[in-house]
User: Fold these one by one.
Assistant:
Number 1:
Amino acid sequence: MTEARLLPEADLMLVNALADGELDAPSAAALERRMADEPALRQSYDAIVATREALGRLERPAMDAGFLDRIGSVVGAFGPDAASARRPSRWKADWRALAASVLVAVLVAGSGGYWLGTNTMSQQNIADLVASSHRRSLLAASPVDIASSSRHTVKPWLDSRIGISPPAPDLAAKGFVLVGGRVDVIGGHAVPTLVYRHNEHLITVVAEPAGAAISGPRDSQTDGYNMVNWSGNGFDYWAVSDLERPELDGFVARYIAASGAGKNDQSSSTIAQ
Amino acid sequence: MPHLKDALAFARWLTGSRDDAEDVVQEACLRAYASIGGGTVLRPRAWLLAIVRNAAFTWMAKNRPKWLLASGDGTEMDRLAETGEASFTDLLTRTPEAELIRKADMAAVREAVAALPVRLREVLILREFNDLSYRDIADVLAVPIGTVMSRLSRARLLLAASLAEGCRD
């Protein structure tokens, strides 16, 4: 200990912020100038740095195999025989599927900060919601919030509304004209939706942000509407229409081909035509 | 598994026990699931650490009733952690010397961290062991940044004093 008195708390906080790299450049420069003149400031700074160094010498708790086994057995992420983990799981088997979706959801969130609810909704729930949203849009004055046949208009509009937009390829030459886009709410989440027209039939394409999985297309039918579900480009897609099955499948095939669904680039706005 | 290691480190230093930390993190994963229901998680690391923190407090209160007492909850030291407590500076009238702090061995450092009041300790852990910014720490603890800065500076001052004192003996 030396004879230097403690600094006022405000100064102490400033010196800490400097040590933590939390000061902007002008404030840091000003404080360093003061430190040159005031030994008490300099001494506090040195003490903080020394304390941080002392903490830095401590070992970091490692995630040992036992713990990973335990979490692994809980989330089922380390193989089917994970039940033989060294530490018995305190969770019932029922919880495993739930826990697995937690970690999957946390991973998804870590990679992009997107919402986490989709893992908890069944595919059938989503299909029902997508179908009813399609039906509502047919009853509404306009099926779209932004009417434009240009993806250069629709994508920026969706981006500005909810910060995300799926590929919106121009398929007019194939007989599918882009009508526009809207924001649907599926399971409490705002999702980007595109609307295409084929003859007098509308096709709703709902694109839910998802992980990197690529799958589908899978055909289904809900409420009398034909539906197709597939994944790629970082989205889970649902196409719904009263089009005949072969025509809807044809649309989906062209959409996938034109949007490069083999890639996983959610932010991709360059679309192969 | 991003964030799992952070969760474990935070729980480890908060509870002071490896086994308790693992139980707490497991419990936190369960809670994380329950709270996912809907909504956006924009800062997943801060979000998960906040859940770990809550899980740690309830788990320890239930299973280690002495922990809260030992952690200084409700004691004089814990009140000192709150901002605006003028008598704090009475405890430390001099700035500890860096040379003395550097002599502290690892066991002494570990003990000094464990002895910090929990309100100060959690801020220090998030900063030093989880490497969170002030902004993120404020998010995890749901307190203003000014409170984070005040608690962090007090935590380091107490730590520095206790390390320097230990080396003089």
Note: The CA atoms of residues 59 and 134 of chain B lie 26 Å apart.
Number 2:
Amino acid sequence: MKPEATGSGTIAARLDLQDPLFWRAGAVSVTLVMIVVLAFLSVDSMRVISVGGRNVPNYDVINYRIGYQFDWSRKMDVPVIGGAQPLFGKTVTEAEATALMDKGKLVIQSRNCMNCHTIFGNGAYYGPDLTKSWLDPAWSQIWMPMTGKATREDAMVEFLMHPDKYPTWTRQMPNLNISEDEARATVAYLKWLSAIDTNGFPANFGKANTSR
Amino acid sequence: MYRSQKLSLRYFGAAVALFGVMIVFGLLSALYYLHPSLLFDVFNFSTSKTLHIDTLVIWLLMGFLGAVYWYLPKELGREVEGMWLAELMFWIFCIAVAIVAAVFIFVQYGSSNEFTLWFINQGRKYVEAPRWATIGIVAVMAVFAYNVVATCIKAHKMTGIMWVLVIDLVPLLVVYLDAFPAITNMSVDLYWWWWLVHMWVESTWEVLIGCVMALVLMDVMGTSRRIVEAWLYIEVMLVLGAGILGLGHHYFWIGTPEYWLSIGGFFSALEPLPLLGMVVHAIYDAGTHRMKTTNRPAFYWITAEAFGNFIGAGIWGFMMTLPQINLFSHGTQWTVSHGHFAFWGAYACGVIAVLYVAKQQVSGVNFLDGRAWKWGFGLLNLGMIGMVMGLLLAGMAQAFFGRAIGGSTLMAFTTASENPWFVSGIYARFFFGVIFAAGYVVLVYDLLTAPKHLPMPQATPEPA
């Protein structure tokens, strides 16, 4: 390489910047090592977050009661799957649950939900986070009386279909022409979502002003 | 002037226009926070926000393409291969952007079926554009990659910067293919979505802008190639060394295993290092050249880029990246504060620097300076810092009152959003947003005005 007539005695020279090849080797090797590590971690993560994996329950979890409690061994809030509590009073098979989830996810994408709300904290921050929305006390405290529905899921369906009729605050959810089938699938999706182990996010959900 | 540089001027024009559209929808989105009933059920927040963030991605991408088409022939000493294809793709790109924007504005959303995903809205943040348009972007990137590689081969010449650029094209293309799937399982969906968002923005784009900055530094300050290339390799080593596993800071709360808390926390805490390196680099170069430059606006925007990248991406990111804090700060306006500052510092300032490089060559002056650019520089940076501070205030109120104390329910969210700190922060954001918009107007005016022919400033004697 032809040496250039600059920089001798400068910081560059002292840092050995005269030899880019050394740094090039460093850049290439560091990048390759990191990619290999990421590949291994991704394979393992996929095992954990696939449906039925350690952190993500099967879709038919919507047949059961779901809670969210502090786990002293893990020092964080974790979802707790309880006894039977079928959604809309009807126990579904794994295949039926999967069809509901496919539909529910399509509703969430087609209505651009994530550009107002967040899920797992990812989204647009204009509306509340939906990670544990199934467990939100507002359904029983506000919307069940407001819609006159007897169950949480029926109140959710009614709200999703006509959100502009049930405002709770100055920021309102717009009417997105969600059909009844779409609303029921979305409720199923949100119930399943609340059963995912998210390493304790969000912390203390629904526990303000209680014993803790 | 090379034909490829004429194309890059077109890309710069489109980028600056979309920069303006982004500001319009940014101001509108900010206005919903102050007047929530605005355009209710007619033109909802989600649509405005989508247009704001999508035009952000597209104008920066167009700015990068323009910058590379500008420097490619200079770097390799010959015209770019396959120019007719590149010119065709530019028009396809523009028409596609216009159609997608029109559909977003007038159709907004669809029913829950595949048709919506293909032709209306994919509803995944940053990749809302329907699939047909996504295919279009892949085609634009593929032609861009072909132009770069074919020109290198025809020129029988490779420089270090070109090697980095060519290799960076691979993830630029491959990771973008992640814009298509609609996986039902949200955890898996977001796992791969973050490859697209993080690997593009925090890795591939950082490397790309590193190449562009290296070329600009040689151009406006006459920094030697060996120094610039050594720094580029160091930057790549640190950006990818920290950034690839720094991806883990997005895997804290999406259902992924607990080890990501440690891995993501550790590596993302290292992510400011390469950005600090860029600051050292910029100061060092400015010092060795006694702040002497032939293009003062470009020089100032590069300096703003170095500092903005370090503070906005590095410090603002570090502030909220450790899981113990992120548990509460995640998904609040705190994130928005970091997002605005990081995109501004890391990319927008760099693209604006290249715009001034192009302006100097087009107008043929030996020394570019004046008064208007200083107003644009000042107003844009003041507006951005004001917005960032307002959002930080609002976000901290949300983190403390909404998340830590309130427990993130609907009531907690509402209460935090009525907190006076939140409200005043949101007002400040809008106010400084208007100042930012004023800065944009001055910037456009200055870019379009022919510069005066100024004498070179008296050179300071070099130290012995």
Note: Chain B has a mean pLDDT of 92.
